[in-house]
Amino acid sequence: MPERKDSDSRKLLLRLRETLAAPGGGQHRLDQITHHIADSMGTQVCSIYLFRDAETLELCATEGLKPESVHKTRLRLGEGLVGRVARTGRHVNSANAPAEPGFRYMPETGEEVYPSFLGVPIQRVGEKLGVLVVQSRDARQFSEDELYGLEVVAMVLAEMAELGAFLGSQSDGLPQAHRFPVMFRGTTAQEGVAEGRVWLHEPRVVIANPVGEDPLKEKARLNEGVAMLRSTVDSMLSGHDMGGGDSAEVMEAYRLFAHSRSWLRRMEEGIDLGLSAEAAVEKEQSQARARLESAADPYLRDRLHDLDDLSNRLLRILTGQGRDTGASMPENPILVARNIGPAELLDYGRKLKGVVLEEGSVGSHAAIVARALAIPLVIHAERVIAEALNGDPIQVDGDSGVVHLRPEETVAKAFRDKMAMQAEAQQRYAGLRDLPATDKAGTTVQLYMNAGLMADLPSLDGSGAEGVGLFRTELQFLTRTRVPRRGELAGLYAHVLDSAHGKPVMFRTLDIGSDKVLPYMKPQDEPNPAMGWRAIRVGLDKRGVLRMQLQALIRAAVGKPLYVMFPFITEMEEFEDAHRLLMEQLAREQRLGHQMPSDIRVGAMLETPSLAFAPRKFFEMCDFISVGGNDLKQFFFAADRENERVRRRYDTLNTSFITLLDQIVQRCNAANVPVSFCGEDAGRPIEAVTFAALGFRRLSMRPASIGPVKHLIRRVDLDELRKVIDDARQAGDTNLRRPVTEWLARQ
Ligand code: PEP
Ligand code: MG
């Protein structure tokens, strides 16, 4: 076989482009294309397999195999060599295909006389569309040049498919990409259900012309685009105070990528083979995405993400397509994104009905914002960006972490039934809004809500919460690009207090550091951030910010009671120290002539097991204590609350954990200090009644949980439940969920 030259490849691509421009249906085009490819590559066979649905590939056109097998031969994903290419996103190049592991013999195609096989994926930035195969009679391995040439052709086919070139005319109507229903199983980050239309945070770039006629012109365009990209990256990074450490290294790696010669060279090679500048960028991007899917090393994954991000920027420069495509947001928008920062999510605000992310984590700031906005959030929905198009119908089930894209009518209907049931339940809860959470024997539990944004406060009245049991002040810091000024914070806190209309608000001082890194804070290189330099530890070591925050709180609460609580207190001395700092600020503000709050209450968050064993004096010093169950549980069980592998492994109703909580309540009661529970578990009805039975008289939760928790408390006798718990503990049960739920079922 003669050496393939760049000019052959370019000629082939031009022929493909002519095929695309010529009249005729999709099937005719596919037939022509296989003919041109076989002819240009000097092979006896060229076949195109496309996805019929997410799991099945269908032979859609062939030159050389038996024509009657077209639209008849089908393979499952992963089946045979074709299925392997589709599943892995990697080529298979073999001189003796039948000897390859996984080879599947398809007698109806007559392929047995062609031992050599080269198959490449037809994919567009991670979205799998099908497989392109050439086969020949002589048993030989295809060369690197041939492989590269075929990948370029596959890339052009993918672009043509995206433009709809193969639509229509197939006898039995082959479903196209972005047509069929897809279900994604992700992870719940915020409960709730929503139905709406897809709104892509980063709309996909459309490449109108994948084939370049004049390589010199295309290279000049590419080089111009890259120069512009480099200068924006340089100025973007020089605007950042990189400080040092990890973040500086990451930024530097990003910059190096943007300046990479080999990246540019590979894209130029694509142009030499006949691609337009933007198609050459996308070809590299597609391959990086395919590698990303199989890369396990987190560092490598991050770098591949960098490359992906740079490719997107470059594509936008070359095509002139900005993020703002002029499309208007659909009604009931459901945001679909790879990941999103808290500030960006806040910008969308309450317009959104739900959020679906490919990445993200349960404890991420975006998740906290979604929680505050009370919109369902599903994370880890793999490949959703590749599948979703703006405006597609979508249903998000934040309760089970499932997303239905373009759902079939039966699925859609079942989903709507679930939504209707939930709406009905909410209606029922609304009727309880002004009633107390009093059990059958007359014990009342105060139900408070957690908040962190101004946007949360309207829920205070709507939910019937008696106050804000945890105001996470770090959100105001996380959503800014610089440290907020004291005046700004004071204004904000005053506004919060005004909106609370006299209901108490427990302000927790900053819980930042380690994983909750502020954009303007020098990141710390810590091996185990959750147990690292965070919260009060930062506050006491770097007192300036904590002082400023305390002053802002004092100024905001003129003439009103002020509740301050310090996060992550681990030993009594930390509380004493923080308490002293607050008293100093009060004295200072008074000296400066500022008006004082009417009352000051100082509390501690009990989030580490050690504090449960603090001296009695500690409990007596506190005006109130709030158990941060999210952290307390992760340290009690040594199970990272953000690690999907372990975070659900240990049950909150595990007897040992309940025994710890019981002891905490007893110690607080003995010292006569009010104790509340403000972790996520407080919002789960079964957990909530159990805590109440242990003696917690205040629970703080997300607003949407107040109704269901109140509903349950009002239907039980907490003393009886206490007995059930004690009996089960006496009997040696290691977990209380079964006795508690069985007892509840009998109520
Ligand atoms: C907790 O740890 O339970 C808590 C309420 O604090 P955060 O979730 O903000 O760490
Ligand atoms: Mg905590």
UniProtKB/TrEMBL annotation:
InterPro entries per record: GAF, GAF-like_dom_sf, PEP-util_enz_mobile_dom, PEP-utilizing_PTS_enzyme, PEP_util_C, Phosphohistidine_dom_sf, PTS_EI-like, PTS_EIN
Keyword Cytoplasm appears in the UniProt entry: yes
Top EC class, one word: transferase
SMART domains reported in the protein's UniProt record: GAF (SM00065)
Subcellular location: Cytoplasm
EC number: 2.7.3.9
GAF domain boundaries: 25-171
Cofactors that this protein relies on: Mg(2+)
Catalytic activities: L-histidyl-[protein] + phosphoenolpyruvate = N(pros)-phospho-L-histidyl-[protein] + pyruvate
Cellular compartments per GO CC: cytoplasm
Gene Ontology BP annotations: phosphoenolpyruvate-dependent sugar phosphotransferase system
GO molecular function list: kinase activity; metal ion binding; phosphoenolpyruvate-protein phosphotransferase activity
Keywords: Cytoplasm, Kinase, Magnesium, Metal-binding, Phosphotransferase system, Sugar transport, Transferase, Transport
Similarity section: Belongs to the PEP-utilizing enzyme family.
Name of the protein described by the UniProt record: phosphoenolpyruvate--protein phosphotransferase
The species this protein was found in: Paracoccus lutimaris
Organismal lineage: Bacteria, Pseudomonadati, Pseudomonadota, Alphaproteobacteria, Rhodobacterales
